[in-house]
Amino acid sequence: MKKKSKATDCVHAGKFIDPITKGMVTPIYPSTSYDYINTEIQAYPRYFNTPNQKVVSEKLAILEHGETAMVLSSGMAAISTVLFALLRNGDHAIFQKDLYGGTYHAILVEMEKFGISYSFVDINNENSILEEFKSNTRLIYCETPSNPLMKLTDLKMVSAIAKDSNIASVVDNTFASPINQNPIDFGCDVVIHSGTKYLGGHSDICCGAIISSHELMKLFWGTAIHFGGSLNAETCSLLERSLKTLALRVEKQSQNALEISKYLEKNTLIKKVNYPGLPSHPQYDLAMNQMSGYGGMLSFELNANINEVDKFLENLKIFHTAMSLGGVDSIISTPAKTSHSKMTARQREEAGISDKLLRASIGIEDSRDLIEDIDQALSRIKVLV
Q1: Are residues 46 and 163 in the same domain?
Q2: pLDDT tens profile 245-297
Q3: For the purposes of burial, counting CB atoms within 10 Å of the CB of 372, is it exposed (0-12), middle (13-18) or buried (19 or more)?
Q4: 276 within a domain of the structure (yes/no)
Q5: Active-site residue flag, 172
Q6: How many domains does one find in the chain?
Q7: 113 an active-site residue?
Q8: Most buried of 51, 132, 150, 228 (most Cβ within 10 A)?
């Protein structure tokens, strides 16, 4: 049988049919205690092997072209598990310098406590990576597209460097989703998701995921059971529901984001638009080579002669001013006040994150309505001459 499409895998991969009722939806197994006699596997929620956990894990592994997967209680639980499973006291790690603020802050606060050193690099400059390599370097970590400037990482290049040095390459694939990008296809070892975003897709669950080989997952499992970031059956069931529509949602969100980006790029009140699907994006060719779609995330910076950033946000009628992203509703936020607020003003400036930068998570609404909403909000703010 030929390989199935992602849309089909979203619906059918990992499907569990209850042997008694034969229902189409996986039953919710809320039990925290299971029989251990005459069973191959001793099921326990903290061991990530209960029926609902296994169903969504198998679906995610297939969607990301990995051997196996694990679902956890949050994206940061997934990130922390991977980092502390792969790194030990005395090790060194290389991180992309423009990371999600939560990841960046965790590195700054936690790594040195455990005697782990690190370097932040320009992840697309091979020399920048190699210059920071040490004899104790154990992993390279990146996210692509990046949050919030939508910079891309050349996955083939990063994975090749990692393989040549016999270390792990880890990719946060949250913004792209398994629909638009599969880092494992480019030789990367580990894929991480904040499932709260596109995997969940409805702004109503918090979860994370790790996808990798069976060999690496043994390491992650050993660390994860000690950290206790397990996901309950009810949330797993909601995640399974959401994954069934992932392809439909992401395709619509990507289409909307491209149309809105084109509108913003032509608007004289906008200084810059960051979206990998625009030919003006400096890594447009890379986006075409390693992404099958450009995603629902974009960011744009208001012109210097606009001081009323909050006023613009208040004028929006359809977009929600909220944190997080990836839901069916369009959301807009100021990274300096939300996702990257834990960075200092100087760190944000060095990263290119100004106070007038806005990050938009485009939903599944009609793109014309969303463009009209932005247009009317812009028309109601003062422009300094």
Answers
A1: yes
A2: 999 999 999 999 999 999 999 999 999 999 999 999 999 999 999 999 999 99
A3: middle
A4: yes
A5: yes
A6: 2
A7: no
A8: 150
Q: Which of 330, 348, 349 is nearest to 340 (CA)?
A: 348
The answer to whether residue 46 is catalytic is: yes
Q: Are residues 302 and 369 in the same domain?
A: yes
Is 328 part of a structural domain of the chain?
yes
CATH of the domain at 237: 3.40.640.10
Which of the four pLDDT bands, split at 50, 70 and 90, describes residue 19? confident
Q: Which of 15, 34, 44, 46 is catalytic?
A: 46
Indicate if 263 and 228 belong to the same structural domain. no
Rg of the chain (C-alpha set): 21
Q: Is 197 a catalytic residue?
A: yes
223 and 269 in a single domain? The answer is no
Q: Which residue has the tokens 């940061």?
A: 76
Pair 97, 185 in one domain: yes
Give the per-residue pLDDT at 2: 65
pLDDT tens for 28-39 read: 999 999 998 988
Domain end (from 243, 271, 287): 243
Catalytic residue among 172, 189, 249, 263: 172
Tell me the C-alpha distance between 155 and 32, whole Å: 40
pTM beyond 0.85: the answer is yes
User: Is residue 384 situated within a structural domain?
Assistant: no
Nearest to 240 by CA among 209, 264, 286, 285: 209
Active-site pick, 29, 100, 104, 263 = 100
Identify which has the larger pLDDT, 384 or 10. Answer: 10
In a domain, 48, yes or no: yes
Q: What is the DSSP string of 2-66?
A: PPPPHHHHHHHTT----TTT--SSPPP---S----TT-SS---GGGT-SHHHHHHHHHHHHHTT-
Can you give the pLDDT at residue 384?
Answer: 64
Q: Is residue 192 within 8 Å of 79, Cβ to Cβ?
A: yes
Query: 56 and 150 share a domain?
Result: yes
Which pair of tokens denotes residue 185? Answer: 């296809």
Q: Which domain holds residue 342?
A: 247-379
The reported pLDDT for the residue numbered 385 is: 46
Same domain, 315 and 211: no
The whole-angstrom separation of Cα 233 and Cα 224 is 17
Q: pLDDT per residue over 228-237, tens digit each?
A: 999 999 999 9
Kindly name the residue from 151, 197, 252, 348 that is annotated as catalytic.
Answer: 197
> What pLDDT, in 10s, does the model give residues 209-220?
999 999 999 999
